[in-house]
Amino acid sequence: MIVNTELEQKGNLFPSEIINYKKDIDTLQFTTKNNVVLQVTVVRDSVIRFRYSTTGKFENDFSYGVTIHASRGYHFLDVTEDEKHYIITTSKLICKVERLSLQVSLFDALDLKLINQDEIGFHWEESYEYGGDIVKMSKACQKAESYYGLGDKPVDVNLKGKRFENWATDSYAFGKNTDPIYKAIPFYTALHDNKSYGIFFDNTFKTSFDFAHERRNVTSFWAQGGEMNYYFMYGPKMEDVVKNYTDLTGKPHALPPLWALGFHQCKWSYYPEANVKEVTNTFRDLKIPCDAIYLDIDYMDDFRCFTWNKDYFPDPKKMVKELKDDGFKTVVIIDPGIKIDLEYDVFKEGLDKDYFCKRADGPYMKGKVWPGECYFPDYTKPEVRDWWAGLFKELIEDIGVKGVWNDMNEPAVMDVPNKSFPDDVRHDYDGNPCSHRKAHNIYGTQMARATYHGLKKYAYPKRPFVITRSAYSGAQRYTSTWMGDNVATWEHLAIANNQAQRMSMSGFSFAGSDIGGFAEQPHGELFARWIQLGIFHAFCRVHSSGDHGDQEPWVFGEEITDIVRKFVELRYQLLPYLYTAFWNYINDGTPILKSLVLYDQEDSATYYRSDEFIYGEQILVCPIQEPNAKGRRMYIPRGKWYNFWTDELVEGGKEMWVDAALESMPIFIKEGAVIPKYPVQQYVGEKKFDDITLDVYYKEGKESSKLYDDAHDGYDYKKGRFSLRTFTVTGKKEQLIIQQHKRGDFNADYNKFHIVFHNLPFSITSIQIDNVEVPIDNFNTGKKQSILIDKEFNELHLVGK
Ligand code: GLC
Question: What pLDDT, on a 0 to 100 scale, did the predictor assign at position 157?
Fold first, then answer.
């Protein structure tokens, strides 16, 4: 027997002094006496990659997380040396590498202030059990530094003082602080001295993050295998850190079809067909807008993916068409577990083609999920992803299904203690064969990716819509996501709020939770409050396990139905605003939701705020998260804000009480904003309208707002058929000027803007449109001051006294 005392006693190992340095264009390589190599690659002036090897040799450089579309290139790069360091300078950063220890410190290139510094820096432990290393990084936690991000963690927004693990886990009825849950997003942003930076630890093994939890002055991260391989991203604005990260790991490949930003109704499960129709008909009868209806696992024949239970759904194509005619898009669930059944063609083909995951010694990875014993496709193999994509032909092209919901893709396995595959399962990892230890966290993303490619192909020329439960960094390129099996409690409403903010700060804005809670049943008040929050999440879906009762908007009585309708209508009115925010996200990575710290990092009062957030650029939202509330205290960020309901102007930078009885909630609009609104529709595209509303909130000073539009589906927008309008509002004591700047060749159906003015401090004496005086009686001075004008106006000038 080999006794491993020597290896076990080695403990933490450290790099020794640098004995060799070479530079190859953007990459510097430092080798130490004990054969540790540090590769420093300047990706952009503000993005530097650090990669360490303990053997002198690197692994094949392959990443599922980093996109090939990531921006690369820098304005300036210079390397100098002093007695103690190698010094790498870009236009944004100065990075010093210590000769004796390989420790790194980073400074702002403009004001030379310290941003981030290794504490003991890179170190490692040899893994006797698996080979390779447990790779570790310890960094100094600066005075008053705080931390954000990390994906779906169900905790308050600021992560300081906490420790987390990233290992995608099926977590039915998880609770506050449960860790890990469904996703693995090893990215955080940090903030101190008004400077923000981010770290993306691109390692798909189980990773851990400790934010000054174990030691007050140290923040560290480590992985159970693979390389210490991280990207350092500098702001100094937090929003720019998030944009850099999103650029690196990818923006969604396409805008979602606009209907996907509508309201979605789901349950486990609506069946048979008559039940589905009853639900969709009730939406229409009660005039609650809705765009998507979901079929959970019971639509299948004994849970066999890509089949239908013909007793429940005798003619799916006909049903899907009828739903479509009524404005409903059908979304169906597809899980990774393929039932072991030689009579089932998907199974048979997967088996014949050798597409299922296998254990280390050759047997198939057999696990129990909804269909009973299953095999699981190895989505980390390109050929398997192609096959999987092809399986969607019938569902999408023939039957007309518009979206696919990928679940259980952590991957989840029932009746086993670790709820997933054993570690020894083998994966292709795109030609870099490995065990499940390395592929686990990426499995769900590769499934969603394959699904996305299927939908993209068969839905063409329409845009695909995919939703996934599990995700690793970069999954946002292919899919939307939800937070898994939450619970119908007030605490979970707050968790949903924090998770959506955190996902948005982690590059994944197209996210939302099961509204009302998946497990257990909400009472009406909780449901109404949750809808109020949910309409401000990019993905807005009611879902429930169904075994505790119904969760449609009308099951809680008339008062709640009316409140739900009112807020879902508000979502539909704000669709052009949300679509613009989505375009902004796709265009440059701007997160759709902004926690207050991300919105205004110069205001230290925001560092620990978890409830309030900015929706898009100019709407401040704060959900009510307690029963029997008539309002709440909340923090209003600096600047002036209008109460959405009363138009009352408040000065921010302070906490205040805001009234919000059950039929209301705290919503504020930034002064100077131009908020576009559609008329209420029961589903996207139901109506053609002659005009859309622009709500203009007076400001003394200047503010600009954007409105993006295109055909709401298809890809013509990529060829220039979009329209981007920028409205600049300039308010003076007795004047208001709105200038419009237009870009793109898309021409929407409507011809006019109905401009509604909020809080004009003067009465109108003259109106000019594009320098031409127009009769003052064009101006409606009723309850709402407004004017209807041609949408192509360049300048509207109001003068008053
Ligand atoms: C999982 C999903 C849930 C779904 C259920 C049945 O629990 O998280 O959303 O309804 O499986 O498919």
Answer: 97
Identified catalytic residue from 410, 514, 611, 713: 410
Higher local confidence (pLDDT), 83 or 549: 83
Are the C-beta atoms of 598 and 505 separated by less than 8 Å?
yes
Question: What are the residues whose beta carbons fall under 8 Å from the beta carbon of 31, sequence distance 6 or more?
Answer: 18, 19, 20, 21, 37, 56
Q: What percent of the chain has pLDDT over 90?
A: 97
Distance of alpha carbon 381 from alpha carbon 355, whole angstroms = 8
For every residue of 646-704, DSSP letters joined together read T--EEE-SEEEEEE--TT---EEEETT-EEEEPPP-SSTTS---SEEEEEEE--SEEEE
Ligand 1 atom 10: residue of nearest CA? 268
- Residue 275 scores a pLDDT above 90: yes
Collapsing DSSP to helix, strand or coil, 423 comes out as coil
**Neighbour count for residue 750 (Cβ, 10 Å):** 16
Pair of tokens at residue 709: 């539009």
Q: What is the mean pLDDT of residues 92-103?
A: 98
DSSP E strands in 436-506: the ranges are 466-468, 471-472, 480-482
Look up residue 615 and give its two tokens.
């929706």
Is 550 in the active site?
no
In 364-461, DSSP assigns E strands to 367-369, 372-375, 403-406, 426-427, 434-435
Question: Is residue 407 in contact with ligand 1, taking CB distance under 6 Å?
Answer: yes
Which atom of ligand 1 lies at the shortest distance from residue 485's CA? 8
Which of helix, strand or coil describes residue 528? helix
Q: Which residue do the tokens 């309002």 mark? A: 631
User: 609-624 burial by CB neighbour count: b if 16+ within 10 A, else e?
Assistant: bbbbbbbbbbbbbbbb
Mean pLDDT (the chain, rounded): 97
Q: What is the mean pLDDT of residues 317-334?
A: 98
Cα pseudo-dihedral 149, 153, 159, 161, rounded to 10 = -150
Tell me whether residue 485 is one of the annotated catalytic residues.
Answer: yes
Question: Is a pLDDT exceeding 50 seen at residue 190?
Answer: yes
Pairing of strands 329-334, 292-295: parallel
Could you write out the three-class secondary structure of 156-181?
CCCCCCCEEEECCCCCCCCCCCCCCC
Q: How far is the CA of 467 from the centre of ligand 1 (A)?
A: 12
Spot the catalytic one: 407, 612, 710, 713: 407
Q: For 194-219, how does the pLDDT look when each residue is reduced to its tens digit (9 = 90+)?
A: 999 999 999 999 999 999 999 999 99
Q: What is the dihedral of CA 153, 159, 164, 169, to 10 degrees?
A: 0
Is 410 annotated as catalytic? yes
pLDDT at 8: 53
| Residue at 184: amino acid letter | A
Report the DSSP beta bridge partners of residue 28: 23, 40
Q: What's phi and psi for 570, nearest 5 deg?
A: -60, -40
Alpha-carbon distance of 419 to 437, in angstroms, equals 14
**Placement of tokens 């998946």 in the chain:** 518
User: Tens of pLDDT along 386-437?
Assistant: 999 999 999 999 999 999 999 999 999 999 999 999 999 999 999 999 999 9
Q: Is the link from the previous residue into 272 a cis peptide, with omega within 30 of 0?
A: yes
| Helix H or strand E encompassing 541 | strand 541-542
In degrees rounded to 5, what are phi and psi of residue 500?
A: -65, -40
What count of other Cβ atoms lies within 10 Å of the Cβ of residue 220?
Answer: 21
- Strand pairing category for 403-406 and 466-468: parallel
Average pLDDT over residues 716-737: 98
**Which residue is listed with tokens 């793109």?**
744
The H or E element containing residue 77 is strand 77-81
Burial class (CB in 10 A: 0-12, 13-18, 19+), 474: buried
